[in-house]
């Protein structure tokens, strides 16, 4: 029984604390490689935020490189020799980090920054002055636009068509101080949007329709974009996908690598997919501190709300013991989280409840350390980014 095993491993710890179940983590890592079908997976660090676990994934066959969420993070991971291939997934306006990048030859060879306009290049030039080549990746907007004015997908790049991509690529290639080495296209409306949201059958129908139309359109357009860009630039990589879209992205002949991170931890948002189901690997424990009624147990703390739309699916969820849920009128709170259900009748003051976060790495912005559990033992305890005094926003 998983609850018994986790309770035994952490019996000497006082909640709140966080764990990663290495058995589940390794299972998920292997399943992602299976789903990637031969494409190397770049580890999305924003979904991990624990240096030890980023390295653990990279040590496995099938994983290569890190997709960082800030330039400052990429520079730090380079200093720590976590990887020699660090792609910053979002454009940067961090002048201090750009100056550090320009001054560090090793980092310039390892780190690639994201751009989707000449304004990004202008900002870099203004921040650091004359400089040696800085590696850049062109990001493609992969939203689905079925009708004029309709935009379905994340608001990211300004580059949508092959003509736009080729024109920008040609200008980057001509620009002194930059080397265009990659293209990235993240299909958030597929990779990050589950097609089987629990208890929402009509929403599921709508999402599946969008994804059934958006997916084929994207494969065709991304292939055309990459072909156009390759006419003017010698690309090292074409990155796409995310945990929720590995199969689709892997079917695109223009893609050379995939990205994934959340699937290693299996947060609750990824319960909403039909095609795969990661094991819950990242958990946190809270203590029962009140029994206001027979069927309600109040836990200390727990209000670790995930980013995104302010909807109920961003709340953490009780996991073990089974049969618990939060209260609709109170939810998970800053200092207390009431849970109810038949299982609450058996809970006593001091008992622990295991919780799951809605998103992956955001959980570890709440904890300085994470206990790595193997079987019924804590294998070791390691710092999170926060525990290493690293805050990248």
From TrEMBL:
What are the residue boundaries of the Alanine racemase N-terminal domain, all occurrences included? 20-190
- Pfam families per the UniProt record, alphabetical: Ala_racemase_N
Protein name (record): Alanine racemase
Give the organism, scientific name: Lentzea cavernae
Taxonomic path:
Bacteria, Bacillati, Actinomycetota, Actinomycetes, Pseudonocardiales
């Amino acid at each position: 029984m998983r609850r018994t095993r986790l309770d035994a491993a952490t019996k000497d710890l006082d909640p709140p604390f966080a764990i990663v179940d290495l058995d589940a983590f390794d299972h998920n890592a292997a399943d992602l490689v299976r789903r990637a079908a031969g494409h190397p997976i770049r580890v999305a660090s924003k979904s991990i935020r624990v240096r030890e676990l980023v390295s653990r994934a990279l040590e496995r066959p099938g994983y290569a490189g890190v997709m960082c969420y800030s330039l400052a993070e990429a520079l730090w991971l380079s200093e720590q020799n976590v990887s020699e291939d660090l792609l910053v997934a979002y454009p940067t306006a961090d002048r201090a980090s750009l100056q550090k990048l320009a001054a560090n030859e090793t980092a310039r060879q390892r780190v690639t920054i994201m751009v989707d306009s000449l304004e990004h290049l202008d900002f870099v030039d203004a921040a650091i002055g004359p400089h040696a080549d800085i590696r850049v990746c062109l990001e493609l907007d992969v939203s689905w636009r079925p009708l004029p004015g309709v935009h379905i997908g994340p608001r990211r790049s300004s580059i949508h068509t092959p003509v736009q991509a080729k024109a920008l690529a040609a200008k980057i290639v001509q620009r002194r101080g930059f080397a265009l080495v990659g293209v990235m296209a993240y299909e958030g409306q597929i990779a990050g949007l589950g097609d089987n949201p629990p208890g929402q059958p009509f929403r599921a129908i709508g999402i599946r329709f969008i994804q059934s139309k958006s997916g084929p359109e994207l494969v065709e357009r991304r292939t055309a974009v990459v072909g156009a860009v390759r006419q003017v630039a010698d690309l090292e990589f074409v990155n796409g996908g995310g945990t929720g879209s590995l199969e689709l992205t892997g079917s695109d002949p223009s893609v050379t690598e995939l990205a994934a991170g959340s699937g290693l931890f299996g947060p609750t948002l990824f319960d909403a997919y039909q095609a795969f189901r990661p094991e819950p690997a990242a958990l946190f424990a809270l203590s029962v501190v009140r029994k206001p009624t027979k069927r309600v147990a109040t836990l200390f703390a727990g209000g670790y709300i995930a980013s995104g739309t302010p909807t109920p699916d961003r709340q953490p969820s009780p996991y073990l013991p089974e049969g618990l849920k939060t209260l609709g009128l109170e939810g998970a709170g800053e200092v207390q989280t009431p849970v109810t259900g038949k299982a609450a009748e058996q809970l006593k003051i001091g008992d622990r409840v295991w919780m799951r976060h809605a998103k992956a790495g955001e959980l570890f912005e709440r904890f300085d350390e994470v206990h790595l559990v193997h079987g019924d033992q804590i294998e070791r305890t390691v710092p999170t980014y926060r525990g290493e005094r690293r805050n990248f926003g």
